[in-house]
Specification:
This protein is α/β, with parallel strands linked by helices. It is built from 11 helices and 9 strands. The model has no long low-confidence stretch (mean pLDDT 92).
Length: 282
């Protein structure tokens, strides 16, 4: 009888199978096998010689095949880490990206640590932004909105799992869910990929509603920037994540709607990723 393969062997074969289908085949294989065996990457390396029983091996092979078909690792494992928070992720929400942590950093600079501040996260998805801000600012009153009921269920469950139940979740498109309310800080990582962008092919497994707002990719920004002055307090800040080539367009929208002190921040890869501006009465 052929002995069962070891952890190390499965990781090698899994990474090889993903070589042409992933930018990080070894990491993907480690995350998927770790999910099957219920252990972290360090444990996989330390236990490399351990055999893997056949049922677990078959589950791993099935996950590798799904990954080859383009399913994101986060959907296969059901979780994603963001801002050191472990978030549940389903196909109802966009997979949180590391570059979005730039938006968290930008917002935190304007949310005081020791006093109350009203914060709005538009298009919250998994709740990543709202929960990251709430985890760092215990006095903040954070509301996350989304047009998708399924997405809000994921966000709500994440808040409860993380002990951040004070975050409020509301259903509605952009500002519809907060009519009449004003905030000191508004953040959003809206859909910003143009509908005909070739990148959409590689993102086909994620919800299109969270990826593209229309032909130009700027449609959501126009809605958000146009509506923000009616929902920001004097001196309030609007901070938006966008594509690397969209910073001038987002800045121009902010200027046209009366924002001042407009600034664009770069992500860890050095790409223009977040633009923010202040609403200051004259």
């Amino acid at each position: 009888m052929t002995p069962p393969p070891s952890i190390a062997v499965l990781l090698r074969t899994g990474a090889a199978a993903l070589g042409a289908h992933s930018e990080s085949p070894r990491l993907d294989a480690e995350l998927l096998l770790g999910a099957v065996l219920g252990c972290g990457r360090a444990a996989l390396i330390a236990r490399g010689a351990d055999p893997v029983e056949s049922a677990a091996g078959r589950r791993f092979e099935a996950l590798i095949e799904s990954r080859r078909q383009g399913v994101p690792v986060a959907y296969l494992t059901g979780t994603r880490e963001f801002w050191s928070l472990r978030l549940a992720v389903t196909p109802a929400v966009l997979v949180p990206r590391p570059e979005t942590e730039t938006l968290v950093e930008a917002a935190l600079a304007h949310v005081p640590l020791e006093r109350e501040c009203r914060v709005l996260d538009l298009g919250t998805g998994s709740g990543a932004l709202a929960l990251a801000l709430a985890s760092e600012r215990p006095h903040a009153r954070v509301i996350g909105t989304d047009v998708s009921p399924d997405a809000l269920e994921v966000a709500r469950a994440n808040g409860l799992a993380l002990g951040l139940s004070r975050v409020e979740w509301r259903l509605g498109s952009w500002f519809e869910a907060v009519a009449g309310a004003r905030f000191e800080v508004i953040v959003s990582n809206p859909p910003y990929v143009a509908a005909d962008d070739p990148a959409m092919a590689s993102l086909r497994r994620e919800p299109a509603l969270a990826l593209t707002p229309g032909p130009t990719g700027l449609e959501a920004f126009a809605r958000i920037v146009g509506g923000a002055p009616s929902h920001l307090s004097d001196g309030g800040v609007l901070a938006l994540e966008h594509g690397a080539a969209q910073a001038p367009d987002v800045a121009a929208l902010m200027t046209a709607h009366g924002f001042h002190g407009i600034e664009t921040l770069r992500d860890q890869a050095g790409l223009p990723r977040v633009t923010l501006g202040f609403l200051i009465s004259q």
